[in-house]
Each structure stands twice: as structure tokens, then as C-alpha cells.
Amino acid sequence: MSTKITGAEAVIKCLLEEGADLVYGYPGGAIMPIYDELYKYQDKLQHVLTRHEQGATHSAQGFARATGKVGVAMATSGPGATNLITGIADAQIDSTPMVCITGQVATHLLGSDAFQETDIVGISTPVTKWNFQITDAAEIPAIMAKAFYIARSGRPGPVLIDITKDAQLAELDYKYKKCTSIRSYRPIPLIDSSKVEQAAEVINNAKKPMIVFGQGIILGEAEAELKAFVEKSGIPAAWTILGLSAMPTNHPLNVGMVGMHGNYGPNVLTNECDVLIALGMRFDDRVTGNLATYAKQAKIIHFEIDPAEVDKNVMTDVAVLGNVKDTLAQILPLINKNSHESWHNEFKKKHELEFEKVINDDLNPQKEGLTMAEVLEQINIASNDDAVIVSDVGQHQMFACRYAKFTQTKSNITSGGLGTMGFALPAAIGAKMGVPNREVVAIIGDGGYQMTIQELGTIFQTKVPVKIVVLNNDYLGMVRQWQQLFFDKRYASTEMINPDFVAIAKGYHIDAKRVSKREDLASAVQEMMDSKDAYFLEVCVEKEHNVFPMIPTGASVSDMRLS
Amino acid sequence: MENKKFTISVYSENNIGLLNRISAIFLKRHINIESLTVSESEIENVSRFIIVVRITESSVKKLVGQIEKQIEVIKAFYHTNEETIYRESALFKIASDLLFDERQIQNIIKESNSEIVTVARDFFVISKSGRRSEILDVYNKLKPYGIKQFVRSGRISVSKDEMAISKILKDY
């Protein structure tokens, strides 16, 4: 049955049809008809007014990453739309499903440099999975259905729909049909069974195999298949930064993180394994280091949903295309049971070395200054390893990914590919709204915090009980570390004269505390975790502590430095 | 791996904005497009892009992979010159009096299998289709007499191998 409604109302109805009950956004002239309808539908569709459109996209991302659903963000035309771009680019590189809706000037004004007009479709093209401009209200239901289908299917990603103001105001015969296929789009490649068999043969003949799993496991909901595969094959499994939490951190076959600041064993042994099994990961340069020396001795098996990722950075011997949930399920019966004990000992030996040279000092420092790692450890203790950790970008992010412990999937939310400072505070808002029964802790540096600090206003207004931990070293810590190591300690523009963060949080009526002494840390973290409301904790940490191990840019994974 | 000339063929839905999306893939990788032609294909509502680039085979493979990722792209292929039949077209506008005063011009037209498209009081127009080198040859021969306007199209090509787009569309 069809009924006549406005384009603006159709947008809201489409969102509800797709199961969206929460949108993040910021109103403005060109999207006012949609906001006017939101007013009418506020009992069905909650709108969260962020303090900046960038905050809206990061919140939508946090929601999507914590729930696996599509996040929705809205903005007006022109500056509203361009302010979404950082979050969209972040979602694109990290494969986050998101639908962004922007208002646009009226159709007859398009191309006339009208007030608040930008070519947002042109601007967002390189950073969206798909985008479209609607100038005819009748197109709204079909395009919205297509947008959600594209955003969530196959390798997920952000979609932007730009709707002219006249299309929002015009009436249409509303009829909704979910999109289930598009003629030119195959979201998941067909599985070639012969490739699965080839991969199984290589794996069964391997003496020193290792697994590197990425976010494809989480996006494909293949956690159980991964666990079964790892446990049957007995192969040591390492995670990429976005793969973290796909397998419990304390799993005995979990050997740590690969990449620039990952763990020593899985990085160095990448260049000693005979078979490298990449599961839903894309061989990012932060993972591989120098490609010319990366795993040259190993046969590479790549399980991947996106054919364009195969052989993009690392040449594979066997490419198993498909959803990793399905391909792992297919390969499992073909895999021999094994334990690879002596090979595991290699990882253990490397871990002992890393523990002695790095981890022990990070967790049990003998010096006075607090380390970021011990803060993470206190959060692990207070949350029983069960919090969702949303980290920003920088040293604290690396410490969070190295030291936070996870028991559940979708618990590590961070800006991986784009490295967007300012991500964590709004992303934590979205994550907490997505999984309100879980504890969500944002770990942020003093630099990134000030990039989206205005979202404290969103927290105050919505009363979303996120926990915010700022690890304050009064520096842009990671840049300073690079300046120390590679630029002769010339600390150009990395020292920050910071405001009174506790006073600012209190200004937003958020409970807040500052700690700088070791003896106060555990109780402060506990107090934060015990709070039922939002809570801000500033921890003053050692100013010039560095993140190690480290693979310097362009170096080989086997040349990882421990100090 | 050395740079070679490749002809990329893209079969896509006929949608607004796709040209922007595809050209952005080249821009992002800093790859110069030598020529680009877009037209209808043999299938209704399916467009065909012909893009000529000079890059390594490993780059063209990745490029085609990225192009195929676009939602509206049905399939993309790349071919070497030997694997395709290809042509370009050119128009030369020349002052009419030269057609009568310079007998050699008529010989150039005849020998190069060019066509006279139109003759007006002040100018006449020659059309030449063929490989780039053949068009260039005509250009060089006509140049001494004075060319008022010259324009050359991008490459159009068909592959020697079948592309089977209809079958791909059926399989989706």
C-alpha cells in the first residue's frame, strides 16, 4: 500500500525500515525539513545532537563498531557536509558500515555557488563506498534501501546520500522495498573449493605456520570459526590492530599483535615462518614494514572478501576469496589436528625477551612517573577484562592495544587506517549507546582529546555514562617519540601547554578527577568504574616515555627494536 | 617491471558520477590517463569506458581491481595493444583555397585513406581514422600547409577475446 508523504518523512521512514533507531547529527538550513520530521518521530528515532559534525560521524562509527549495525550520521549542506569528511574517510579505510545523509541546496540552485552549497558528492567520492545525490523525492526509498545494503554488505563501508531541499519537501508515493541485490555489485565473491583444498594442503604440510587475523573476522562474524580453526590446527595466531578482540587476549594460541608497535615474537617470526595465513586483513604498511623483506621465505595464504586486496601489497601463493566465516568453515574439516609445540616455543622465547626488556618496565616501573601501560592494567583489573576500549591515536593507542585485555569480540574500537586524532571521545559515545550494558572506556591523549573536546557537551546533554581517561604527558607523545628517535630530539611544536582538564569536565557537569601518583591510581580507576554516570579521569603520566618495541618506518619486521 | 601501454575496458551502469569515481582512482595513484572514451556498449543501459594508460602490468592489475570494486562497475579488463583492435579518429580543418592551390593535399588525402567530410567556402574538413601513428603522419604532412583546427579522439577498441558481459550479468 502506498501513501503520499514528503521526501523528508520518507527519509525517516526508510531509516526505521532499516532498523536504525539512533542517528547522530547537526541541523542546518538545507536539512531542516528532515529535522522537522525527526521532531514528529522522536519517540521512534532518537537523534543525538553532537557538538560538531565530525563528532556525529565518529559516534556513528563507534556505534557501528560496537554493535555490527550500520551507523547513521546527518548534516546540513556545505560546511556541515564537509565536516563529515574526516569520519567518512576513517570509516572507509577501516571498513565501517555507515550511512551519512546530507541536506543540499534546492535543485535549481545546484552549481550556482548558492549559500552553503558544496559538491559533497564530488568531495566524498574518493572516501565513500558509494554515494548519490537525490533531486527527486520519488527516488528516496529505493536509494535509501540501496545505501543501507551497500554500507553493510560484503566489505562494509560508508555511503553518503545528498538530498536537495526541494526533494525533501516534495511529496511522493511512499513504498519501501529492502534492497537485496544490485546488478553490477557482487558483495561476496563465490568460493572456489579448489583454492580451499590447496590452502588446506599447504597448511597441513607446514612446519612453522602462523596466522595473522584482522578485522575481517569481526566484520564477518567469524570469531567461532577462527577459534575452531586455530585450536584444531594448533597454529600460533597474531592479531592486527583492528583484529584485536576477535579472539580472547588470554587464549593460549594468541601470540600478540603484529605491526609497528606490536609484539616482538609475531613480528620477528613473520620472517621465519614457512606459511603465513592472513585472515581478513589487508597487509597494511604499518603491519608489513618493508615489503621487500616481508615474509619472503613464507608461502602466503590470503583469506579475503575483497578481490582488490589480493596481491595488492603482498603476493599470495593461494588466495581464498569469500566471507572468511564461510571459507574457514569449509577448510576446517580438511585441516589436520596439530600442536606445533616447538614452533610455539619460539614465540614463548621471544615473549620472554620482550617481557624482560619492555613489558616488565611498562607494567612494573621502578621510576616515579606513571606509565600508560599500568593505567591500562588497572582498567583491566577494574573491568575484569570486559570493557569496550575506545582509543584515540598516538602513544596511548599503542599502549591500549598492547595492554588492554579482552574477553569479548567488538571490544577494541580505534582509528586504525586513517589514524584520526579526535576519534575516541565521540566514538565512545556511539559505542556506549550501542552497547549500553557494557562498560565503555575511552583512552585518549591530551592532544587528540582537544580535537573533539566539545563532545563533552553531547555527553552532558545525553547523560551517556562513558568513562573518559586522558593519559596526559603534555606532549603529542608519538610525534615527540619520533622526534627523539629520528629528528635528533628537536621537539618542534609537540609540547602542549594544557588547560585544566578536570575543571573543563566539571564545567560540563561531568564527575572528574586527576591522579599523578602511583598509590592513587588503582582507587581512582576503581572509583571511575564504579560510577554510574559519565566520568573523566586525567592521569598525568611520564612525559617522555616511549612505546617499544618498534619497527621504524621502512625497516623490516625482523629488525624490530626493543629499545 | 617496465611501463607498457594498456587499454582498460570498463563495463558499467550508466549512472551520473561514475566518471568522477573512476577518474579519482587514477588521481589517487598519480597515474596519467592518455585517453578516455565513454560510450554506450553493445548492452542496453551499459556504458563502456576505454581508458589508455602507460604503466606496469602489476599497476594495471591493481588499478583494474580497484575499478571493479566500484558498485556500478560490472567488469573491468585490461589488454595490451596486441590483444585489441583499436582506432582513434581525427578531424583537420584547412583553408579551402589550399585544396585547389596545393595539389599535394589531395594526394595526402588519397594516400592516407582520409575522407573529406565537408567543403565550405572558407574551409574544408578532413576525417582520418586509424592508429595514432597514422593520424600523426597525416598531421605532419598537412602541417606545412597550415591546419586551422585539429582534434583527435580518444582510443576506441574491441578486444580479440570475448568479454562475455551478458553472461556475467546473468550470473550476478
UniProtKB/TrEMBL annotation, chain A:
Pathway terms, separated by semicolons: Amino-acid biosynthesis; L-valine biosynthesis; L-valine from pyruvate: step 1/4; Amino-acid biosynthesis; L-isoleucine biosynthesis; L-isoleucine from 2-oxobutanoate: step 1/4
Cofactor names = Mg(2+); thiamine diphosphate
Where in the numbering of this chain does the Thiamine pyrophosphate enzyme TPP-binding domain appear? 392-539
Q: Which InterPro entries does this entry report, sorted A to Z?
A: Acetolactate_synth_lsu (IPR012846), AHAS_TPP (IPR039368), DHS-like_NAD/FAD-binding_dom (IPR029035), THDP-binding (IPR029061), Thiamin_PyroP_enz_cen_dom (IPR012000), Thiamin_PyroP_enz_TPP-bd_dom (IPR012001), TPP-bd_CS (IPR000399), TPP_enz (IPR045229)
GO MF annotations, alphabetized: acetolactate synthase activity; flavin adenine dinucleotide binding; magnesium ion binding; thiamine pyrophosphate binding
Instruction: Give the main EC class.
Output: transferase
Sorted alphabetically, the Gene Ontology cellular component annotations on this record are: acetolactate synthase complex
Q: Which PANTHER family match?
A: ACETOLACTATE SYNTHASE CATALYTIC SUBUNIT, MITOCHONDRIAL (PTHR18968:SF13), THIAMINE PYROPHOSPHATE ENZYMES (PTHR18968)
Family the entry assigns: Belongs to the TPP enzyme family.
**Protein name per the record:** Acetolactate synthase
Q: Which organism is it from?
A: Urechidicola croceus
TrEMBL record, chain B:
- Tell me which residues make up the ACT domain: 7-87
CDD domains assigned to the protein according to its UniProt record, in alphabetical order: ACT_AHAS
Q: Which family does it belong to?
A: Belongs to the acetolactate synthase small subunit family.
Under what name is this protein listed? Acetolactate synthase small subunit
An example GO BP is:
isoleucine biosynthetic process
Question: Which Pfam family would be a valid example here?
Answer: ACT_AHAS_ss
- EC number of this enzyme: 2.2.1.6
Q: Which GO terms describe its cellular component?
A: cytosol
Q: In which pathway does it act?
A: Amino-acid biosynthesis; L-valine biosynthesis; L-valine from pyruvate: step 1/4; Amino-acid biosynthesis; L-isoleucine biosynthesis; L-isoleucine from 2-oxobutanoate: step 1/4
**What reaction(s) does this enzyme catalyze?**
2 pyruvate + H(+) = (2S)-2-acetolactate + CO2
Q: Which organism is it from?
A: Urechidicola croceus
What's this protein's function?
Answer: Catalyzes the conversion of 2 pyruvate molecules into acetolactate in the first common step of the biosynthetic pathway of the branched-amino acids such as leucine, isoleucine, and valine.
Q: Name one GO molecular function term.
A: acetolactate synthase regulator activity
Taxonomy, superkingdom:
Bacteria
Q: How does it assemble?
A: Dimer of large and small chains.
Keywords, alphabetical: Amino-acid biosynthesis, Branched-chain amino acid biosynthesis, Transferase
